[in-house]
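Final report, closing paragraph on structural work. Over the funding period we assembled a curated collection of sequence-structure pairs, and we close with a single example.
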Amino acid sequence: MYETEREVIEILKRNKIDVVSTLPCEKISALLRFVARERAFCHVGLNREENGVGLSAGVYLAGGKPVMIIQSTGLGNSINAIMSLSVTYKLPLPVIASWRGVYKENIEAQVPLGKALPNVLDALGLKYTIIEDSLQIRLVEEVVQDSFTNERPHIALISPRTWESDDVIKGNTVLHKTRKWTLKYEREIKEPEMRRYDAIRIIAEYLDEEAVISNIGVPSKELYAAKDRNLNFYMLGSLGQASSIGLGVALKTKRETMVLDGDGSLLMSNILPIAAEKKPRNLSIVCLDNGTWGSTGDQPAPYADMELMAISASVENTMKVHTEEELRSALERLYEDAGPRFLHVMVKPGNALSPYRAFGVVGQSPTVENIKLGAEQIKRRFMEAMR
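Its predicted structure, as stored:
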């Protein structure tokens, strides 16, 4: 019994997969239980499929070999992250997807995307392999090997027919562990003194051997201007994935890993509970909170006390700063406690401008150049520096 599931596990082990991120599907529940029990893998349970794309990218950037196991509907949720991160940077992303909506589907909502999915993947130029039954499960190995050989996403669309001879594994599922919370949280949100670029320049002074993942758009340009380093990974797209990438990096290296994220990006991703659960001691998430969507014109973002969100996600080591003096003090003692750490930096709205936009504009922030590196250059030099 469960020979098909066991074969998938052996394929992953044979190909030295070391981090497996998953989101449930009832059709592959037995496979997911085998994954969770397998000591050869670091298993990361996701709350959004896009986070698996970011996490897998970080794992690979740090020298690991990831696989994502999800329901096919999650591919629809993840298209932008796959295209703007995995495809743009040429990162392997083997995906084992339970293909819903086609074979004996009882849930009407699964049908529209499920039936259209091959055409959608064709239109995007994404490689996929259809597996119709258990006799074809060996094709998973070709999917994994092709993804790493050619540094691209490759998706195994696996029909539920493949698993239908097996029963669901009945388990000792623990939905809620006994726990006790005592929380007293008092903070005053003061008017910030710094802009984000001011804070990034200060943070850059303290960087040594850390791997740094910077959020998309202007924040990456500002870090590039403040202190370009081979250990900086500049994001060009996939908003919301900075901390997921950072978590993936931190899981595969002992090197201190810092994420320069934003309040809007973190609100999109909801990655903090996953980081808190995995407890990477070498991960620091710096939330540069300007209360806006900074790179797109400072439109107001939904308000939340991001430090309180980190605490509610079970991140134990948190700080909040408003001034240069407070930021420097926090950075000097940042590594006194183990991660994951969350540093909430309150900053004013406003971006450093590109020279083109700054032409003829008076009283604005300093100017910064566009990043003079392509996606593959950013990836290659970061990976070489991580060795």
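Residues 196-386 form a domain with the Rossmann fold fold (CATH 3.40.50.970). The first strand starts at residue 19 and ends at 22. We thank the funder for supporting this effort.
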